[in-house]
Amino acid sequence: MTTTARELGRRFHAALITGDWPAIRSMLHDDATWTLPGDNTISGTVVGADAVVDRARKIASYGPSFELLHILVSRENMALSLHNTAQRPDAILDEHLTTVCRLRDGRIADIETYLSDVPGMNAFFV
């Protein structure tokens, strides 16, 4: 599973930075979920592959760079370690995060994101 998980992580990151939403959708189970901390426009849990893609699209619409630091794998799952940065006239985003993907049958079933700066994310994603 480790090679498959690592490759899935590479493909997910590549699709995210290029805005290839159909590719992201193809990597998800129909009942996939994504949970983000905080209290802002992208926080909480979304359910369903289309909702996960919509969230990725919404995050990308704010213009962050998604610098891939590491792809981490466990026996059955994978995680992306990222450094996201962006700037608007009234807010700066500079956060480290890990997006943990629980896999089922070679596709993403659940995503949970852990952040280094939840207050900064709250201020940026208004």
The low-pLDDT segments are none
The percent range for helix content is 25-40%
Tell the overall outline.
Answer: globular
Query: What is the CA-CA span between the terminal residues?
Result: 38 Å
Q: Overall mean pLDDT score?
A: 96
Number of strands: 6
* Largest sheet composition: 6 strands, mixed
The order of strands across the largest sheet is 2-1-6-5-4-3
Beta-strand level of the residues, as a percent range? Answer: 35-45%
Return Rg in Å: 14 Å
Q: Pairing-aware structural class of the strands and helices?
A: alpha+beta
SSE series: HHEEHEEEEH
With helices defined by DSSP (H or I, 4 residues minimum), what is the helix count? 4
Give a structural overview.
This protein is an alpha+beta fold. 34% of the residues lie in helices and 44% in strands. The chain has four helices and six strands; from the N terminus they run ααββαββββα. It has helices at residues 2-18, 21-26, 49-61, 118-124; strands at 28-36, 44-47, 65-73, 78-88, 91-104, 107-115. Strands 2-1-6-5-4-3 form a six-stranded mixed β-sheet. The protein is globular. The mean pLDDT is 96.
